[in-house]
Amino acid sequence: MTPARSLLRGPVQYLKGVGPRRSERFAQLGVHTGRDLLYHLPYRYEDATTVDAIAGLQVGQDATVIGRVISKGVIPTRQRLRVFRAVIRDDSGHIELAWPGRPWLDRMIDKGDLLLAAGPVRFYHGRQLQPREHTVLARRSDDAAASDDAAASDDGAASDERPAAGRVFPVYGATKGLTHRQVRAVVRLNLSRLLAELGDDDPIPRAWLAELSLPPLAEALHTLHRPPAVDRVTPSQRRLAFEELFFLQLLHARARARLRHESEGIAFDAPPTLTQALPRALPFELTRAQRRVWADIEADMRRPTPMNRLLQGDVGSGKTVVAALAMLKAIEGGRQAAIMAPTELLAEQHQRTFVDMLGPLGVEPVLLTGSVTGKGRQDALERIADGRARFVVGTHALIQDAVEFASPGLVVIDEQHRFGVEQRRRLRESGQASDALVMSATPIPRSLALVLYGDLDLSVIDELPPGRRTIRTAVRGPGSREAAFDFVGDQMAAGRQAYVVYPLVEESETLEARAATVMFERLQTRFADFNVRLLHGRFSSAEKDEAMRSFLAGETQLLVATTVIEVGIDVPNATVMLVEDAERFGLAQLHQLRGRVGRGAEQSYCIVFHAAAEPSERLRAFEKTSDGFKLAEDDLRIRGQGDLFGKEQHGTPLLRFAQLDRDHDLLEDARRRARAIVADDPGLTKPAHRALRHALDARYAQREALYHVG
Predict the structure, then answer these.
(1) Of 286, 301, 544, 623, which cross-links 268 as Cys (Cβ 3.0–4.6 Å)?
(2) How confident is the model over 375-407, as pLDDT tens digits?
(3) Mean pLDDT throughout 57-86?
(4) Closest Cα partner for 169 from 51, 261, 326, 285?
(5) What are phi and psi of 673, to 5 degrees?
(6) Which CATH class is domain 287-294+305-461?
(7) CA-to-CA distance for 321 and 302, rounded, in angstroms?
(8) CA–CA separation, 350 and 392 (whole Å)
(9) What is the pTM of this model?
(10) For the domain with range 472-625, which CATH number is right: 3.40.720.10, 3.40.50.300, 1.10.1530.10, 3.30.565.10?
């Protein structure tokens, strides 16, 4: 007897209402199997449980209505504005809907469609509703197999011909040739059978769900696809969020355990001669945060297991000094230490800093970048290979095949997100660093750090050195632009330097924003007495390097740039950062740009312009605080995590269900449980953990293979 085909594991084309042609469109949504369809969740819901009767609508009311389209058309106005209008009717009466400036809706809404619309009711030749949002709930033209007008489904659901009021309509992600209504119909036709096959297959123990007040998996999926009320959605969303966060933290915990137990580490326990001498030689006292973080790192390096730690600190918080202490700790232990920077200019800046800092201790930093050639390069390679170079500064050139360390002990990676996965993998597999310290000057919220870097121990320098001047920040409208440029001119006349940053390289027909290339020509004319240079991402590496060196040397007074300078070098004489069209930048970007000034003794200024009538909430937050970690929290709250995450380097979204501004409590709980399990059973071989191991292998194998990279 032939076994029944698995709907969960089988191709989506064999589900009711799909077929070969439609399965190709589902594939564009990442839906290849029945299980994928179960996890293709609605991204929002139209709540028709509280629908207003059209006959009772009052002018000034904010209403939600459902009705059939009985007429429609596009009407021009005297101001040449084309307005799409549709008249809908329910059992009580009819009303006109109007969408000014959106004539294309005439192609998307048809006579006979069942329409949900929400918005204010106004008086315009009678009552009129201007939809703030709308959804076509059903079309008469949809085919019977996958339309919301199907007579019934195998799970006993009634058709959408029944009154739509009193229901919650899920809205799914769709693609060309596959509408959200068709996706909804396919889910409705197959949901019961998919959930029946899923049964009690739930990787999360029931006891945990009870402790967290979360529903079982099948119940959560059913509620998310067919919610009886909108307020029932949140617990089910949190159920999937917890599962996602837990397995992510389980992957992190296993990566940590594998690194600690499968790699032979170095116990750096030699007398602390250099690490005690450096603080005494510095012209300033370490902050409490620096001392606390250094204690974490020193304790890590004393252990006979590899250190894998993330050092976070705001611009100017003193991460470089802490990195120097860690590298000296490795040198005390008879090993070599290296620091890798993402650009040659930054590596050279580190080199100058360390020469000044470590000269009194008799430690000579050796520089190795792509620009070090000929005899200088050969000498550096020989000194690294025979161990005479104890303190090495460089770029990714340090992990090229020609570079061999005699006794590697520690590598510091500055701005690790600028090194690709492959580069970090080579570094780890080369054995060139048993201990690793990753530095980031981009403050990120703790919740985000635990998701992105959960396999690293986290240390945060959360205070700035005393006496450091606050950069005066001003958010201004277009009317203040001339005065701001007059101020820039005054600063340059006083011997200072300035940046002006634009969001675009060249003007765009689709974006209303100033462009660096166009404004550069105008600023050259305006500031004819000064040297004005242009710098943007389309320049070659050599051109970028030359422009930055000219600015660093003081030969250029005004640098007109894009965000290519976001992570740059210290120019102590630069006192003004002016940012145009600031709404087009994220808070983290703006904060990094602000950090390009304020590096010297003079008072520095950051002026950002908004194009709207009033500054946005993000810009108001930027003006109020210079605390990068507070701004990062605000950014997560205001924008959500999508803009912060982007994509992982192998192209898969990091989180599909969890929202860190909402689910931080679940993240902490997931982290605690995952670490406890791995500490007790690293291989997940105990009977109580077999279901977790099975789910990990089945769902997360690809991601687990990449997590050891860092």
Answers:
(1) 301
(2) 999 999 999 999 999 999 998 888 777 888 999
(3) 89
(4) 51
(5) -65, -40
(6) alpha beta
(7) 19
(8) 10
(9) 0.72
(10) 3.40.50.300
